[in-house]
Structures are given as C-alpha cells and as structure tokens.
Amino acid sequence: MTTGRRAEVSGAGFAGLTAATALAKRGWKVRVHERSPELRTEGAGIVLWGNSLRVLDKLGATHDLESRAMRSPAYETRMNNSIKSQEEMEGVRWISVTRPHLFRTLLTAAREAGVEVISGSEIAGATPEGVVTLADGDTIEADLVVGADGVNSAVRDSLDIPLKRERSRDGITRFLVPRRKADLQRLEPDTEWDNYIDFWNLEPRVLRVLYVPCNEDEVYIALMAPVDDAQGSRVPIDLDLWTASFPHLAPILEEAAELPGRYYGYQTTRVDHWTEGRVAIIGDAAHAMCPALAQGAGTAMQNAWTLAEAATAASDADLAQALIDWERLERPYTDRAQDRSQYYADTRQMAEGSQFQGDILETALYDPTDPKRHEVAV
Question: Which of 201, 281, 312, 370 could make an SS bond with 26 (beta carbons 3.0 to 4.6 A apart)?
C-alpha cells in the first residue's frame, strides 16, 4: 500500500472509475475529472465477460452489479430468423447489464474507496512529468495521470501520441427498452426469449438486430445497418423498415421507434504507445474497437486494474519504466481483441454463428487479477 501518492484521472467512464477505485484501494489519493456537468453514462446495455467480472470481484462490486443483471442460457445466432447456432459456453463467465446500472455500481465503489469525483471539470492536457492542465488554465501536479477520456482523448492528443483510425462499413444504434417478453412469446412461443439472440439478414439488404436481455424488465437492442444505408441508419428508426425485416421483434421495435438515438459507425483506434512518462491512457483513448466481441469495456477495465497494480508496485523513480513494462505485458491481449473484432466487422462472419470458441475467447477467459498470469509453464 502507498500513502500520499496522487493520481489524477481524466474521464469518469468505466475505465476511469475502475482505475481510480483500484488505485484508491492501494492507498493512492485519487481525483477523477469528468468534463460533463452530470455524472452519467451514454448507451444502453453491455455484456461483461470473465476478465472484467474478475476485476469487479476485486473491487467488491460484483454483488451489487449482479443484483440487477442476467446470464442468458445461450448466445443464439439466427439468419433470416432460422437458428444457425446456440452456444451455451459452459465454463465461460458472462452477464449482461444496463450501462446505467454498471455506471452506478462503479461510481459507488469509487466513492466508497475514497475517490474524489468532480463533474464539470475537464483536463485539457498533460505532460510526461505528470502535470495536468485544466480547461480553465489551472495546473495540478500528480505522481500518475490516467487518460480515460474517450476516443477523442485530450490527454492522448496533448502528448502527440500517433494514432490511426480504421472505420468500418457498418454501424449501430443502441436502445434500452422494456422487454415485452409476453408479447414476444405470443408471436414466437417456441423461442427462448431469455437467450442473447443475434438476428441477421443479409438479403435482400444487410440489417441486424442484437437482442440482449439485461434483467427481468429491460432489454438492450442494437440495430445494425451499413453506413451508406440512409434508411437503415436513420434515427429515429424507420419502424416500417425494421418491422418488415424482423416482424417477430415488432413489440420492442415499436418501443425503440419512440426514442431518440444516435447512429455510431464502427471504428478501431490504434495508438503508437499507451504511456508517456507518468501518463498512461486506457479504454477508448488507447484502444477503441468494434463491438463484435463485446470487449471494449472489458479490456478497458482489465487494463485499468493492471495499470493500478503496476503503478503501485513501482517506486516513484521507476514509475515511467514500470508503465512501459505494463504496456508490454498487457497490450498484446487487447491488440488481439481489436484485430478479431475488426475482422468480424469487416467480414460480417458473426452471421455464421458458432464464433465463441478457441482463440476468440482469449480475453473472456483472461484473468487480469491472477499474479501468475504471465508465467510460462516449463
């Protein structure tokens, strides 16, 4: 445990709050800066796998999170409403949950650990020496700076870290709506509506609905259409188009049609390096990825945890080198998750089903809390 070392964290999202809590539990004085005037999260639902759930275990947040979460019996893939595969994934830990519930759980854990979270406070940049500049011009010295400020990270850009963006041909609009399970059951009584179901249509046009029950009352749906499909990517959604393609989902599509939303094109962000002196970037600031493997948040949380571990173990004089070593050890897992997610986005191969096996489960099965995880068996 350290005493008196200070960390300044930019961004009160999943990555920032996880890093802040992990550091605070190790004795750091931590302050999180969130530029938005309110502490909240965007989005609808999320799937968490074993890598992030093990971190939540260590943060003491799992019980609260799972009080309103769900583990579906299977991941089901359909093409034109015909079942291609049903993967039960025995031995794989995973749950679905609403983003607001996950955010509230992480925020509570952070505050209980003694983290100071300030809304309406924006970090405009940082130096390798650990000096952060706020949007109002004030400066703060820190022993560690964490940039968890999203895909357009000001911390990253202030350090001139080279990056490359890869944009894909598809994108999604996300909604959190009432489950209407009884109505869906009347339309298709033979369907297991507790399953996580990936509905694909590739002909006569590419449209996809990802159906993710998050609890007994709410379902997260993601509507995918190509970027160049103006009708399919329209928000509010074109209800006639979507119900014509997925009539069995009409009850929840009707709910989605009443909501505002935003269409997000898939993108992958690759940066040259994650660290610069006393500064480390995590989450979308470092490795935004397509959502095919549902590992954007998972890898962000695993890297937030291992960052706190590495920084705490290092002396003040050795911190910069410790961050370099941390990236060298942990980054390959995230790079491979990015590559696999990008492949699925580029090829739409997930429509074939039976994808969650072999190497695809690497990050889902990775335990970032295991101190022996990098040992090589002889």
Answer: 312
